[in-house]
Amino acid sequence: MANPSAEHELNATVEHDAGGHGGEHVEPVAFGFVGPGAWVSLAMLVFIGILVWKGVPKLITGGLDAKIAAIREQLDEAKKLRAEAEALRGEYAAKIANAEKDAAAMIEHAKTESEAIVAKAEADAKAVIGRRERMAEDKIAGAERAAVDEVRAKAALAATEAARGLIAAKHDADADRKLVDEAISSL
User: Fold this and answer.
1) How many Å apart are CA 5 and CA 2, to the nearest integer?
2) How far apart are CA 165 and CA 172, in angstroms?
3) Residue 15: its pLDDT value, please?
4) Helix (H) or strand (E) holding 43
5) Is 99 within 8 Å of 118 (Cβ atoms)?
6) Residue 19 and residue 22: Cα distance in Å, rounded?
7) Cα 187 to Cα 184: distance, rounded to the nearest angstrom
8) What is the rounded distance in angstroms from the CA atom of residue 46 to the CA atom of residue 38?
9) How many CB atoms lie within 10 A of CB 95?
């Protein structure tokens, strides 16, 4: 057991006679004026200052800006693909109109063949447009998922590094010794 007088000093309380009132609770303060709330505020300001000093916000915004630029490029590419698909659709529509004019001049057998060609051309045009739109939508969705996953990974890494730094700063040999002693005593 430790020194009894030191133990008595740790357990001592201050009692004040405040006009018939019972003992008053006194908040612990450092240097006579700084309370625990001020220490927590100071620690948070230091932590935020370290994050800003290390450039964490710039890293996050830089990564987001790069992803936004990449997604913009993909959206522009998708717009070009859509314009090409619309041009192709217009081209097929023009071919359909010409095929109908030629079918009117031909005999009945040629007329049925031209109608089959027109129907196939319409189906092909719709299929090509549908495939290109699906490809563009899939590409955009994949890019969005990749951007979100990358931002989440960067945020998790930043939080892990910050927690590691805080734990390393707060955890010393005495704390390790206490944890080992507690683990041994619990066995």
Assistant:
1) 9
2) 12
3) 46
4) helix 36-54
5) yes
6) 9
7) 5
8) 12
9) 15
Q: Which residue reads 């309370």 in tokens?
A: 35
User: What is the per-residue DSSP string for 72-140?
Assistant: HHHHHHHHHHHHHHHHHHHHHHHHHHHHHHHHHHS-HHHHHHHHHHHHHHHHHHHHHHHHHHHHHHHHH
Letter for the amino acid at 172? Answer: D
Tell me, rounded to whole angstroms, the distance of Cα 90 from its chain centroid. Answer: 42
Name the token pair of 69. Answer: 């630029």
CA distance linking residue 156 with residue 148, whole number of Å: 12
Per-position b or e across 119-142, b if 16+ CB within 10 A of its CB: eebeeebeeebeebeeebeeeeee
Quickly tell me which residue has 């090409």 as its tokens: 84
Contact status, residue 101 vs residue 156, Cβ threshold 8 Å:
no
- Phi, psi of 173, rounded to the nearest 5 degrees: -65, -40
Q: What is the DSSP letter of 18?
A: B
Question: What region, left, alpha or beta, does residue 28 occupy, with left being phi > 0 and alpha being psi -120 to 50 degrees?
Answer: beta
| pLDDT tens profile 43-95 | 999 999 998 888 888 888 888 999 999 999 999 999 999 999 999 998 988 88
- Look up residue 70 and give its two tokens: 């990449």
CA distance 111 to 132: 32
